[in-house]
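the two lines:
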Amino acid sequence: MMLRRIALIALLGLAAPLSATTPSVHEHTLDNGLKVIVKEDHRAPVVVSQVWYKVGSSYEHNGITGVSHVLEHMMFQGTKTHPPGEFSRIIASHGGRENAFTSRDYTAYFQQLEKDRLEVSFELEADRMRNLALNDEFFQKERRVVMEERRLRTEDNPQALTAERFNAVAYLTSPYRNPVIGWMEDLQRLTLQDLQSWYESWYAPNNATLVVVGDVRPDEVFALAQKHFGVLERRPVPAVAPPLEVEQRGLARLTVKVPAELPYLIMGYKTPVLKTAGETWEPYALEVLAGILDGGASARFARELVRGQQVAAGAGAGYNLYARGDGLFTLSGTPAQGRTMEELEQALREQVRRVREEPVTAAELERVKAQVVAGNVYERDSLFYQAMQIGILETVGLDWRVADEYVDRVKAVTAEQVQQVARKYLKDESLTVAVLDPLPLDPNKPRPMPNNGGDHVR
Amino acid sequence: MYGRSFLGCRRSAGGGLRLLWLLIFLIPLADVQATPDIQHWTTENGARVYFVQAPELPMVDVRVVFDAGSARDAGKAGLAQLTSAVLPDGAGDLSADEIAERFENVGARFGASAGRDMATVSLRSLTDPKLLQPALETFALILTRPAFAPADFERNRNQMLVAVRHGQQSPGYLAEKAFFAGLYGDHPYGSPPGGTEETLQAITREDVLNFYKRYYVARNAVVAIVGDLDRRAAERLVQTVVGGLPKGEAPPPLPEVEDLAEAREVEVPHPSAQSHVRIGQIGMARHDPQYFALYVGNHILGGSGLVSRLNDEIRERRGLSYSVYSYFYPMQRKGPFLMGLQTSTEQAEEAVRLLQAQLERFVTQGPTPEELAAAKKNITGGFALRIDSNGKIVDYLSVIGFYGLPLDYLDRFVERIEAVTLEDVRAAFKRHLEPERNLTVIVGRGAVQAREAGGGAGVGTSSVSQ
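prediction for all of em together
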């Protein structure tokens, strides 16, 4: 025990000199409103470049869900000067790796390249920021690809399908209730015109952030950005109200019946995020709470639910503090062999009761902080992760400097604050519970262990 | 870690036309091809160590790799993974809770896993000695004095049983399982690494204990280290971590792999919206002399993501699948070559035909000169990205050590890729692959419908029930 304490003191003391050596970040905004952020990291002769657009599924209205993601796919299907697929071929010929991703609050495109090839990326990204050539034939084809993607990720994945339905019930008014990939029915009725107007509305330099991390010099990157992106004109971007979630008035519960082998439980409580929280410390206290419950093999879920009571085969807690609108603090799990869904839900609720009624211990709190301090170093092994963090913060309307505060903010959280956020937010009035109730995978065969999966929690 | 001090390992240029090509495209990159300086030694008890000093971040990655993957299960499918799972759940006088606390108190991350060839035990820690030392001591305790207490064994077995059931609801998992089973039969590579309900129920705590004693020994171990340590500190680290392992013996080589005698089709009924397809055959071992020709060739066929031939035919031209690919999976013995995709059930037949035709065409004709040039540019131009983090370098060290690849593997990687010719690719594919002897696995509703119609789906077809 003594040894551990000494170790912890050493660890916490380490943070200051480390942050002093943190690579420098430089920021510059072009006249057309494109914000360029460069983080130097000279460990390897490579660079990652990401273009982040302030648009995603939370900007979509009824009937066109999934349009941001389909447009992301179409961004590889040609511009006025580059035919479909050429973007990828050019990047490949320069040894690059590239792709894109869409989420609720952002759409982002990236290339990873040897450092001297950065200009190739800028030239192509600047071109498709303005000159996308949408075409119905390629749209019809790419829509089929996205539908197959939806079948792969969601329709044929019982837990993902449950999570999708859970979100649709948990969020009453927030657009976070819609899946990023869109409802299949909306994908079917999406038109080329929808894509065209989506592109024209949101793809403008003044609605984007360019993030570059790697073995580069900021002044050179800014000059390159000016050369390629600087010629693009600023355009008016629609004013969209941020996601708004009305107050929930009592527990909501849903059952999802699909062919599956295992049951699955998700519970979610309404919580603020950094952007919406009245008190800035609250989201950090919720982060610590998630760590207390699910931050590794020594956290409460692994120790008590998986190993101690053996009521869960696996259990997790999730919270995301960087988003445009209010979110959820989620608990989820699969019952252990021979245990029921009622037992699992009871065990999770007992965990909630405890964090509400008793302060977490000093040892637990220190352990979470030690992991955060170390994690802050480990993250720097990945250029991509560093760029992601800057891009997310800027795109949800925070400042990239917020990332630098993270360790200190977490270290300042007290046991009392953890208990306060648990009491304030983990309450039945704002809880949604989803249960995956498996149907047989083979209708001709009885389920192998009916006592294990068929529990109806109502 | 590949800073200016490691500029020693440059590629030598070829002759003639290739030299010109190099001058145009590669000379400007000369100083970016610096590769990590790998230090190698063997411990007194016989563990082979691979170390790269990386002073940029105050952290270290340690991997201990044993020839103790599921290929050593010996009929008890799931034994290697169960051993990995129970390993950190009690050692010396420490319980699973205490071990987890010891790591996480100092911000260290521990992992243990098993694939077909390798069992890997890993640690990531900060290098401040006051944090690193307790993490290393706990790590060593796990490696040398695991308890395998009956209760921990039972709990982990139960969790693996749940994981097996989870696999039953995943068409992708079912496809992979059926593919390896169909291709390898009774060969150790044919058994599912996660086990089956039946095999897991039959495994005893003694099986796990004996597996550990037989395979978790120094002469069967490779230690890979990347981090902010000097050589002496690395030597001390290795002594702490594996110094206490008995010498033991490396296991005998795995049995040779037999090719499939004839084409086979396996259908697995599943209620999914998509059919998951895997087509392939026995491919190559890690030591195959034609490794680079096969690697470059496959890059063109289905290994280069959005620009591969398969992606072009299946996704870009027809919109049939979100993900389509091919790969060789080289192991100690011949691993598989396979092509895969997922598509709506009614399109599955068409997709299978297209994959089969693409392979036949590629094996018969090989790539075009333009395709070969583009693939080489992609692989060599992106070489720096393969070694741009400690995490990636420690992966390479594990593979170099485990498969006994030369220490200059990374130094000569680009040169070996450059050396591959059109004829090399054609010859290597012709020698290794016979498209008319493919194993085809389809998981989905098509199989259900065929069965309900009461007829077989054709000659040579077998139906596998879940």
